[in-house]
Amino acid sequence: MRIPFIAGNWKMYKTIAEAKAFAKEFKALYHDTDVKTAIFAPFTQLQSLVSEFDGSGIAVGAQNVHFEKEGAFTGELSVQMLEEIKVDYCLVGHSERRQYFGETDETVNLKLKALLCSKILPVLCVGENLEEREEGKAKLLVGAQVKAAFDGIDSKDAEKVTVAYEPVWAIGTGKTATPEQANDMCACIRETLTELYDEETADRIVIQYGGSVKPENATEIMNMEEIDGALVGGASLEPLKFIEIVNF
Ligand code: PGA
Questions:
Q1: Pocket of ligand 1 (CB under 6 A)
Q2: Would residue 166 show up in a list of annotated catalytic residues for this protein?
Q3: Which of 18, 49, 101, 194 fits 202 for a cystine, CB–CB 3.0-4.6 Å?
Q4: What distance in Å separates the CA atoms of residue 214 and residue 209, rounded to the nearest whole number?
Q5: What is the rounded (10 degree) CA torsion for 73, 74, 75, 77?
Q6: pTM over 0.90, yes/no
Q7: pLDDT tens-place string over residues 200-215
Q8: Is 115 within 8 Å of 90 (Cβ atoms)?
């Protein structure tokens, strides 16, 4: 049984003071639910959020990590550094990192492997851009991203990974994929995972949809059979909006 997983991705928004204010308001609105909930915040806010959410059931995630244990990598953070502050999750391969910061299928794979040696659970982002969709290449491309990301990872570890299908054309644009389009792509990701592993393993992997998820469309998206969760950008910045999505 896959447990629904709703996560907020704050990107480069909020100061520590703003993050603490969010946490206080959100905790008051949040009631124990069967839905797993997490906030992926900028590095400076992680420690405050971990302590604010302690015991609340709300998890905290980082948005990036380096794959090496340590070294001359100015500006980067290691898995161990994130473990030290008790972060639960980490995003890998968000399209903005692929687009602006040179993240490749190869570094995504290395980051997944590094995280899988720790207690931090990875959320792997995949998705096609508009041109690739219009050329009818979405499934091929996303399938290739999934295969490259999971290369050399065994089925036991693969089950710990959440996959977020995020079509680039739907991120921050207000343009959501239709629930059918999103469901179809999530089904295709599960087929690829079945090919790579087996049906049992693929059935256990949680697949989220991300791209302009908001309170108005969350229920419809979450009701789709192949969609187990949502990765929410803009609408996760406000406690009232995000709680509505968590309580879809
Ligand atoms: P959005 O972002 O909800 O603002 O479209 C989603 C994401 O980038 O994870």
A1: 9, 166, 171-172, 210-213, 231-234
A2: yes
A3: 194
A4: 12
A5: 40
A6: yes
A7: 999 999 999 999 999 9
A8: yes
